Amino acid sequence: MVVLAASIISKSGKALVSRQYVDMSRIRIEGLLAAFPKLVGTGKQHTYLETESVRYVYQPIEGLYLLLITNKQSNILEDLDTLRLLSKLVPEYSALDEDSICKTAFELIFAFDEAISLGNKENVTVQQVKQYCEMESHEEKAHKLMMQSKINDTKDVMKKRANELDKIRMEKGKLDKGYSSISGPRVIEKTFSDMNITGTGFGSGSSVSTDMDSFVSKPKGRPSAAAAAPGKGLGMKLGKSQKTNQFIESLKAEGEVILEDAQPSSVSRSSPLLPSDPITVTIEEKLNVTVKRDGGVNNFDVQGTLALQVINDADGFIQLQIENQDVSGLSFKTHPNINKELFNSQQIVGAKDPNRPFPSGQNETPLVKWRIQGMNESSLPLSVNCWPSVSGNETYVNIEYEASEMFDLNNVVITIPLPALREAPTVKQIDGEWKYDPRNSVLEWSILLIDQSNRSGSMEFIVPPADPSTFFPISIGFAASNTFSDLKVTGINPLKEGNPPKYAQRVRLVASNYQIV
Description:
- By secondary structure, the protein is an alpha+beta fold.
- The protein is 28% helix and 34% strand.
- Helix 2 packs antiparallel against helix 4 (105-115) and helix 4 (105-115) crosses helix 5 (126-134).
């Protein structure tokens, strides 16, 4: 007898679980299973069907069929015996409905494999199959018991050693107390002024040790006035030793990040420092770009904002004179309280009511927004190409970037998704630095600055075989100190008498959502 496949299907012929025991394509087995409901009759508990090539031996189990597909030369009695064994195994692992069968598919397949080997029925019972699937081993249990016994013995030894150390410490403490009682009491009347300590440090070594011993053993009570009064000098200077500083410096040289102790100061306890300039103008553009991996742009959107921060109310009576580059697809929107006619005609940002100042405080107030649409791929600040190729049991991934001459990019981070890996990928070559994040399964390629010296760069790494689509979408982050619109404030005009106030201007371009898909 040769069992070609053991399957569980629905009444409509939908395959829920199927285990093939001979070399058979998926299309072939799906075709055989789909044809079965059309051939089956009704009113029989155990029956079979024959076609030109195979024999179906089946048994209805509630709303499902348990089905064996065999060749026509197999022994029908052995086929029925195999079918009865499988019909007893199925309820042991799953309820007789489609959802339960799908959830326990692997358990059923493992049980089928224990009952049928290479198409032939094994001489096993249901209990033996369950035992084999549970993989219980007496040797394994004995090994675990032995390892647990060793762990318990080690813990007992550690507890005994800890008790011995505690006894030694207690005896040592008793000896120290006995020695101090023998030496007798001393009358201590020395204060900070009596000790040989100057404003810049200690005096001679002998006087310091004697005075410090006396000071430590001074009886409790209210300190004298001289002791409570702070000294005029700098006092004792406490700090890290030279060896510690050298060790920290060596760690820094090796690239380790050292968090040094924060020194308490009046500045840290006070409120945050106010901006040095009374007026600050922030011009920011955010990029929302989606580029196709094979070329072309799905989305290229630039959104900009001009925000104003005024510290004092008196400095809020101003107007901003701006200028920008003439860019195709550029459109502006102003705040409802801004004089639109003045802005459109003279590019001056001012309030509708001249007697009403701009809001003051620590928060920025957006005054003008703009948007640039319709730009093509040639205007991209940064282009990234990814070339994965499978060679044997490895996937070689080559990634290259090309930056535009328009911008110098800072803090560039290119994030490449990876398949699930046990170890970090092997980086063969890189222009910049890399970091592997196993939790998110991504590789981060970092370039601190892209300028005229490195407008292009590449990286190559190796991972196990993977689908090329695994390495997409690639996310890119960066910042620049100039914008597409090149908008800037050229001057500030006061509305009241007096000199124009000082102001600071910050301009930045940020990639808020920049992806290669």
